[in-house]
């Protein structure tokens, strides 16, 4: 038996595959739910209800999707250029720290929200960029594989955050808890629905997806970045400046992950702690892959992952089964989705 | 200065180094095997968690410690099989699959653990491996207690370093494994199916990761709890590069890393005013420095992260 | 009466000692029919406010948890659900009518344990392993250190922080490191510390729960903390409809039965025990106040 | 005669491409069969089926009368079939001995018997004159040595039937000759051989029988003695092919001039004080054994890297910025040496591959945005004008055969109307028909006044296309000789570094370059 790539993937399969994947993931997690003595069918209903059944559920689902769209974009952009940025998690944290540090500048307090919000987001993005430029520099200069360095820098970044929020950036009013000073009120993103956590970051994330799609498919930079990733030697022969192209890609990727952190702080949390991210950076990588590295697809994949998580988490409480089932369901559906997308692109031959 | 000398010459410090290094040695050997055959396995963090949980659960339910170790290895191999099926015949992206496995295996472990041990008010415990004093040898001054007063899995890890070094360099199977990591077309042309070779090797490597996890619950500590692997798996991934894909250097790297960890714990008790985060950062930063130093010399398996599909152009 | 619906939200797994005290108290109340208890564990800071809202919307009358890391958001959630009572572990103040807080104040018991340890140490060095230097952890370790000083003014006190709230093997390694530095009695603010003591055959002091059954030969004293008085008070308030927006911490004090020492008979020298019991009685009687010090211990 | 191999009625499809259709082929003991066919005719596929690498959709393979189980390389190896792959199947970081021994011992034995392996390898390499160091790392070997390792691998497995897929594509004439000597020695030893080649003179001199494939089917079979190059070329392509003749040159002004160019090669050969001139309307051929600096010279002129010292002048002006966009803008068209690794990006579409090197030009982008419609139109035009078969603007270029890929590259370069053309190994690996097409295009460019710098290892090609020929040896250029004075022996001397005869010829046929420059200045 072997797999053969289809030159033109069939549309029917491309639509059916994700459905199949969700079914498969739900079947397996249904088994696990049954193991806990609960009724899987009821559980499925509760998952849907949890994510869509109430104002709270819907808003929470969209709130959770927001950073995932951005970290997913960060990974998609980098992977297209074969820049293996596994450091989204660290860049997310530095972005969060960056926005808070920016808010601590005395002059910022005097500025109006219309100025503070864009500048704050830029500060977060720049912080994320810097963290990715380090491993890229090491790769370009010394040939150090970035898979490992970006991975390691995640831990360094979180420790650095911990150091800062325990030191110079510590909130004196936080009863000694290691957390940063809050961002100024003028940097807080407006809510989309009141009495919920949903904020305009969602729209910003969706807009970024469109921008990235446009950059990748319509601009010289996009085509060059892809060429540099797919075959650096041929790209160099065609005159693509490899170094600058990769640096630009890294800025975009790190910037998006940093922006994710900044927006999470400005829209949801208000300050930085070391548990700001439930693996947003790592999930972004899988989400990017689910979307086949397509920026618009990232929105869908992020929503999917958020639905699964928020729905399953709420279901676990309704059924009093261990809440870890939510993470299990999400991870499972990511894996089955990867397989399904593959099968849609290949045909099986004897 | 005196304090530093005291720390560096204490038996306890060096004993701790070997103990802290053990899961790193096992995990690094696991990653090393996978990478030598051409597949990155970022599932390690989750696979270690699963091994830790499963091994502990077996012992908690009455199995003896070695059965627990074997069960953990089998559990690791099972997730290895999953990773292998997705990345080898299907050729899915290795980073992404690995991260997916990590997310899945760890949450799955927590879930199963919570089902098996529903309402524990403090972590239930088992009777873990005790340090085995090897007679005579452990009486050697200094070295004796450091090396010959460890738990059995530590000795197992050390033996495995030698066995895997031998296996990779001196046996026909090891040769085939290395070739599959360099150029799968070449093994195929010699009549060995690289697909099966890769699947088998990844399973073996993942079994070692399972053992690495089990060491945490069956020897280093006596109970399981969520998030207990704490990034040790990722360290192993870095150590493999540090070790330029060589088992003996993997041992060295693991010891070095453990040294920093043990050292910072001891330094904290005597040096004041330095934030603990700086100490904790040290091993990661030093790993990166080591990677820079090694980068020029490292011989990366040439087919690492390149899926092999027969007859695809 | 129908039992009150109570939900617990634990940021850590319920094995974490602090959470386990709350969890055990609520489980016990569930068993004896005074509440109906459901819980979520391992809830990260990002998810915490959502889980609070979900439990509030699900009709729970009282929500028990920890708002340490989410102080602002927790209060804003409470503001949105005026009909639900909240009882949150917090270093801050109560808010509104329905946001009650409590602290973990077993530093008095830690002081008493320190007195025994100071009398028992042979090397003249004791050690404490803590999580992160936050006020409540600091207070506890300082309490222990002050107790040691009270009976042994020359004793040396080592302190390590492991940088996380729940990593027993790391606490164990930190404990071993302290033993290597000469400590012969360890105060385990974190679980895992006593494992180091057990392995090296020295003594240890437990915190919050009774560790002696788990480490019979090793843990000779515990600075116990009880959540049941706080829970009962809050449940009573919620059931009666009286505002719960107050500070329940005083119920943690020794004189109110919120914390106390437990120790193994015969482990410490009799005169040390006697001296300690004297101080204990004085605290109970309100004649002696153990200094409360939130600063990071040195 | 005993029949050792029989392929009967083999059919193999990839998706909707039929690579082999009802192919039957046999081989007698001690015989050398040449397998001939255009690019994409299905030769490699057929051999891969024989070797068990692919499974045929229909048909059967018999070795010594016993059918081979399909899709099992191991069975083929056991049955005594050895294969030398078109793209070497070697592990670069392993030693020669390790490469040869892998898979030859039981996988479960606890110790690999290296000394026995080494002894066997050394014995084989002595017996057949295939010299290699068993302990050398394969990544340090030359292509010729890699080729030998590949053959040794097969022999080590006791192959009685050896298949060689384009063994000489990357070898020099001398290496190829010694390879064929070895092969003949093998047949004397009772081995039977099938080899694939596009070089008709090799086929004529080395084989006993020729089988011609076209579009996946056998179209002819001839005893070598009863056929001719011309007939074979015609059979292969299906029409009469002749390499185009070079009309007399009318050289114009100097378009490209190198003055004392020096470049220390990073990982490649260096250039030491190279000077040359290329005039409008002429072709300057540069020959040489690989590893002497051809690639470096081509890369330098193509704008890939700047010289360490010396000057490059285009149209009389010194180049200051050495990068690809400047080179292209200055009118240099570049045909890369390796079309798969350097010339194309397999997973990108044909149109992207077509416009990538000129994406900065206003024709294909404005203000950073790609003009996709224009790019597609330009690509369609090239596909049409250059007869790039199987290509569509939006299809992945990976699916094209070598010859068609080369046509596309020629198209994208020539459509820009370059004044200077740098063609590195332009017909490497191509079949007769494709080569004729490429040559025609190169001559056309020269005819309209472009200067062509032809860098090639194929002597026939260089003699056929160039006006003047120089050799590159150790990073230095020999004197130039006119093509009509060239013969294999003289070129051999030049490539070996003996330049005395060439210098004489240069002196006698034309003024040395510096004197000529003076006269020009005087005019
Ligand atoms: N795996 C594959 N998938 C799709 N098409 C293939 C595959 N392998 C070969 N082909 C197609 O089958 C035909 C025959 O290919 P094959 O490699 O056997 O020919 P060839 O004579 O060796 O050509 P070349 O000299 O260009 O390598 C070509 O059109 C090729 O594109
Ligand atoms: N100075 C340099 N900077 C960067 N790359 C270089 C440099 N010199 C050579 N290279 C590269 O090294 C490789 C080998 O070049 P080399 O000069 O050895 O080719 P060559 O002598 O023509 O040999 P062959 O015919 O085998 O290609 C090429 O990919 C070339 O681009
Ligand atoms: Mg060919
Ligand atoms: Mg071929």
UniProtKB/TrEMBL annotation, chain A:
This protein's UniProt keywords: Cell membrane, Membrane, Transmembrane, Transmembrane helix
Keyword set includes Transmembrane helix: yes
Family matches, as CDD domains: TM_PBP1_transp_TpRbsC_like
Topological type in the membrane: Multi-pass membrane protein
Transmembrane segments: 12-41, 61-79, 91-109, 115-135, 147-165, 198-215, 236-260, 280-312, 324-344
Domain of life: Bacteria
Molecular function terms from GO: transmembrane transporter activity
A Pfam family hit: BPD_transp_2
Signal peptide limits: none
Compartment list: Cell membrane
One annotated Gene Ontology cellular component of this protein: plasma membrane
Name of the featured protein: Nucleoside ABC transporter membrane protein
Taxonomic placement: Bacteria, Pseudomonadati, Pseudomonadota, Alphaproteobacteria, Rhodobacterales
UniProtKB/TrEMBL annotation, chain B:
Domain of life: Bacteria
GO cellular component: plasma membrane
GO molecular function: transmembrane transporter activity
Transmembrane parts of this sequence: 16-34, 39-59, 65-88, 95-113, 152-169, 195-218, 274-295
Record InterPro entries: ABC_transp_permease
Membrane topology: Multi-pass membrane protein
Protein name: Nucleoside ABC transporter membrane protein
Keywords (A to Z) from UniProt: Cell membrane, Membrane, Transmembrane, Transmembrane helix
Compartments reported by the entry: Cell membrane
Lineage: Bacteria, Pseudomonadati, Pseudomonadota, Alphaproteobacteria, Rhodobacterales
Organism per entry: Pseudooceanicola nitratireducens
UniProtKB/TrEMBL annotation, chain D:
Any matching Pfam family: ABC_tran
GO cellular component, one term: plasma membrane
Cellular compartments annotated: Cell membrane
UniProt xrefs under CDD domains: ABC_Carb_Monos_I, ABC_Carb_Monos_II
Domain spans labelled ABC transporter: 5-240, 256-499
Primary localization: membrane
InterPro entries, sorted: AAA+_ATPase, ABC_carbohydrate_import_ATPase, ABC_transporter-like_ATP-bd, ABC_transporter-like_CS, P-loop_NTPase
GO molecular function, one term: ATP binding
Membrane topology: Peripheral membrane protein
Keywords for this protein: ATP-binding, Cell membrane, Membrane, Nucleotide-binding, Repeat, Sugar transport, Translocase, Transport
Protein name: Nucleoside ABC transporter ATP-binding protein
Organism this protein belongs to: Pseudooceanicola nitratireducens
């Amino acid at each position: 038996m072997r797999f053969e790539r289809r030159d033109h993937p069939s549309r029917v399969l491309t639509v059916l595959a994700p459905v199949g994947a969700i079914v498969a993931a739900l079947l397996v997690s249904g088994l696990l739910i049954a193991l806990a003595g609960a009724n899987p069918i009821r559980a499925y209903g509760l998952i849907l209800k949890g994510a869509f059944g109430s104002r709270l559920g819907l808003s929470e689902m969209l709130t959770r999707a927001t950073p995932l769209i951005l970290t997913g974009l960060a990974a998609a952009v980098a992977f297209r250029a074969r820049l293996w940025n596994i450091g989204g998690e660290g860049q997310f944290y530095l972005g969060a720290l960056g926005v808070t540090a920016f808010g601590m500048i005395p002059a910022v307090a005097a500025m109006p929200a219309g100025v503070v919000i864009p500048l704050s987001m830029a500060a977060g993005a720049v912080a994320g960029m810097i963290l990715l430029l380090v491993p890229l520099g090491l790769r370009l200069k010394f040939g150090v594989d970035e898979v490992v360095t970006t991975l390691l820098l995640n831990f360094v970044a979180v420790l650095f955050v911990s150091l800062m929020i325990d030191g110079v950036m510590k909130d004196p009013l936080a009863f000694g808890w290691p957390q940063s000073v809050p961002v100024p009120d003028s940097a807080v993103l407006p809510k989309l629905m009141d009495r919920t956590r949903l904020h305009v970051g969602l729209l910003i994330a969706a807009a970024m997806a469109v921008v990235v799609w446009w950059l990748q498919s319509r601009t010289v930079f996009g085509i060059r970045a892809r060429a540099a990733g797919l075959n650096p030697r041929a790209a160099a022969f065609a005159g693509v400046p490899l170094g600058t192209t990769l640096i630009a890609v890294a800025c975009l990727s790190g910037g998006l992950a940093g922006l994710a952190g900044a927006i999470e702080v400005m829209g949801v949390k208000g300050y930085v702690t070391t548990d700001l991210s439930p693996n947003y950076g790592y999930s972004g990588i899988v989400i990017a892959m689910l979307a086949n590295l397509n920026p618009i697809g990232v929105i869908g994949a992020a929503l999917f992952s958020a639905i699964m998580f928020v729905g399953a988490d709420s279901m676990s409480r309704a059924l009093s089964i261990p809440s870890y089932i939510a993470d299990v369901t999400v991870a499972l559906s990511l894996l089955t989705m990867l397989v399904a997308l593959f099968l849609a692109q290949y045909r099986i031959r004897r | 200065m005196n304090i530093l000398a005291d720390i560096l010459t204490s038996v306890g410090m060096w004993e701790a180094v070997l103990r802290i290094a053990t899961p790193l040695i096992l995990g690094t050997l696991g990653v090393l095997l996978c990478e030598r055959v051409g597949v990155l396995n970022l599932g390690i963090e989750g696979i270690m968690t699963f091994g830790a949980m499963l091994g502990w659960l077996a012992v908690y339910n009455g199995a003896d410690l070695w059965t627990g170790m074997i069960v953990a290895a089998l559990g690791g191999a099972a997730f290895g099989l999953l990773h292998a099926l997705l990345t080898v015949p299907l050729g899915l992206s290795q980073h992404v699959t690995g991260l997916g496995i990590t997310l899945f295996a760890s949450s799955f472990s927590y879930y199963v653990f919570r089902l098996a041990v529903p309402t524990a008010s403090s972590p239930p415990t088992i009777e873990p491996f005790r340090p085995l004093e090897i007679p005579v040898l452990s009486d050697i001054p200094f070295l004796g207690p450091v090396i010959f007063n460890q738990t059995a899995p530590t000795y197992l890890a050390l033996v495995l370093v030698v066995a895997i070094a031998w296996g990779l360099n001196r046996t026909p199977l090891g040769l085939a494994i290395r070739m599959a990591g360099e150029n799968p077309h070449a093994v195929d042309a010699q009549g060995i199916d690289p697909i099966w070779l890769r699947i088998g090797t990844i399973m073996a490597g993942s079994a070692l990761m399972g053992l690495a996890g089990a060491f945490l619950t069956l020897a280093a500590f006596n109970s399981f709890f969520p998030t207990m692997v704490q990034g040790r798996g990722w360290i192993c991934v870095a150590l493999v590069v540090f070790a330029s894909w060589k088992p003996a250097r993997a041992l060295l790297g693991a010891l070095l890393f453990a040294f920093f960890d043990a050292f910072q714990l001891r330094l904290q008790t005597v040096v004041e005013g330095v934030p603990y985060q700086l100490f904790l950062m040290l091993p990661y930063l030093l790993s990166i420095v080591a990677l820079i130093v090694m980068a020029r010399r490292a011989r990366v398996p040439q087919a690492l992260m390149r899926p092999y599909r027969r007859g695809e152009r | 009466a129908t039992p009150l619906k109570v939900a617990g939200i634990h940021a850590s797994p319920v094995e974490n000692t602090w959470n386990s005290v709350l969890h055990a108290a609520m489980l016990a109340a569930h068993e004896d029919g005074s509440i109906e208890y459901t819980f979520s564990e391992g809830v990260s800071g990002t998810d915490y406010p959502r889980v609070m809202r979900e439990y509030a919307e699900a009709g729970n009358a009282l929500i028990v948890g920890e708002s340490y890391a989410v102080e602002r958001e927790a209060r804003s959630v409470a503001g949105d659900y005026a009909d639900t009572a909240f009882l949150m572990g917090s270093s801050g103040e109560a808010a509104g009518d329905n946001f009650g807080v409590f602290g973990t104040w077993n530093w008095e018991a830690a002081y008493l344990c320190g007195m025994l340890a100071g009398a028992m140490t042979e090397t003249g060095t004791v050690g404490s392993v803590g999580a992160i230097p936050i006020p409540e952890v600091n207070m506890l370790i300082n309490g222990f250190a002050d107790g040691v000083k009270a009976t042994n003014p020359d004793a040396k006190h080592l302190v390590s922080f492991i940088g996380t709230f729940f990593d027993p093997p790391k606490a164990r390694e930190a404990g071993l490191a302290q033993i290597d530095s000469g400590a012969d009695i360890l105060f385990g603010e974190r679980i895992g510390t006593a494992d180091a003591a057990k392995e090296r055959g020295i003594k240890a002091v437990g915190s919050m729960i009774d560790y002696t059954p788990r480490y019979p030969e090793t843990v000779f004293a515990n600075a116990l903390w009880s959540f049941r008085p706080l829970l009962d008070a809050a449940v009573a308030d919620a059931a009666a409809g009286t505002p719960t927006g107050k500070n329940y911490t005083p119920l943690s004090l020794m004189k109110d039965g919120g914390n106390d020492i437990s120790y193994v008979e015969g482990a410490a020298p009799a005169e040390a025990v006697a001296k300690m019991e004297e101080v204990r009685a004085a605290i109970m009687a309100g004649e002696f106040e153990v200094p409360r010090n939130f600063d990071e211990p040195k | 005669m005993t029949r050792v191999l029989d392929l009967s009625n083999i059919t193999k499809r990839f998706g909707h491409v039929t690579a082999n259709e009802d192919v039957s082929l046999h081989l007698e003991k001690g015989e050398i069969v040449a397998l001939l066919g255009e690019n994409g005719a299905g030769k490699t596929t057929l051999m891969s089926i024989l070797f068990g690498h692919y499974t045929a959709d229909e048909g059967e393979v018999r070795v010594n009368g016993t059918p081979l189980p399909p899709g099992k390389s191991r069975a083929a190896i056991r049955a005594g079939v050895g294969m030398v792959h078109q793209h070497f199947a070697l592990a670069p970081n392993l030693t020669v001995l390790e490469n040869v021994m892998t898979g030859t011992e039981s996988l479960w034995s606890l110790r690999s018997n290296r000394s026995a392996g080494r002894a066997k390898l050394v014995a084989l390499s002595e017996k057949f004159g295939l010299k290699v160091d068993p302990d050398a790392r394969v990544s340090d070997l030359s292509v010729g040595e890699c080729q030998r390792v590949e053959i040794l691998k097969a022999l080590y497995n006791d192959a009685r039937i050896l298949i060689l897929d384009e063994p000489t594509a990357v070898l020099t004439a001398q290496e190829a000759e010694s390879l064929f000597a070895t092969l003949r020695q093998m047949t004397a030893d009772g081995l039977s051989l099938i080899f694939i080649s596009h070089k008709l003179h090799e086929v004529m001199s080395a084989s006993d029988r020729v089988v011609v494939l076209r579009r996946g089917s056998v179209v002819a079979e001839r005893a070598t003695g009863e056929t001719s190059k011309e007939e074979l070329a015609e059979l292969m392509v299906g029409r009469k092919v002749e390499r185009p003749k070079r009309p007399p040159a009318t050289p114009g002004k100097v378009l490209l001039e190198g003055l004392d160019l020096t470049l220390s090669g990073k990982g490649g050969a260096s250039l030491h004080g190279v000077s040359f001139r290329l005039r409008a309307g002429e072709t300057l051929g540069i020959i040489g054994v690989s590893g002497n600096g051809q690639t470096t010279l081509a890369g330098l002129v193509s704008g890939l890297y700047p010289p360490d010292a010396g000057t490059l002048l285009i149209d009389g002006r010194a180049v200051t910025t050495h990068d690809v966009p400047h080179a292209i803008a200055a009118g240099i068209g570049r045909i890369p040496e390796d079309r798969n690794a350097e010339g194309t990006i397999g997973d990108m579409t044909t149109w992207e591959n077509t416009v990538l090197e000129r994406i900065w030009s206003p024709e294909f982008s404005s203000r950073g945005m790609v003009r996709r419609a224009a790019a597609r139109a330009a690509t369609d035009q090239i596909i049409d004008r250059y007869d790039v078969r199987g290509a569509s603007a939006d299809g992945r270029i990976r699916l094209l055969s070598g010859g068609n890929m080369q046509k596309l590259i020629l198209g994208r370069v020539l459509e820009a109307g370059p004044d200077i053309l740098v063609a590195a190994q332009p017909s490497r690996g191509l079949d007769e028909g494709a080569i004729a097409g490429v040559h025609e295009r190169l001559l056309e460019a020269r005819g309209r006044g472009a200067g062509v710098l032809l860098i090639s290892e194929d002597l026939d090609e260089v003699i056929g296309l160039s006006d003047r020929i120089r050799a590159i040896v150790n990073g230095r250029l020999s004197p130039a000789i006119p093509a009509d004075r060239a013969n294999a022996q003289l070129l051999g001397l030049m490539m070996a570094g003996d330049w005395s005869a060439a210098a004489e010829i240069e002196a006698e046929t034309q003024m040395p370059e510096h004197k000529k420059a003076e006269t020009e200045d005087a005019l």
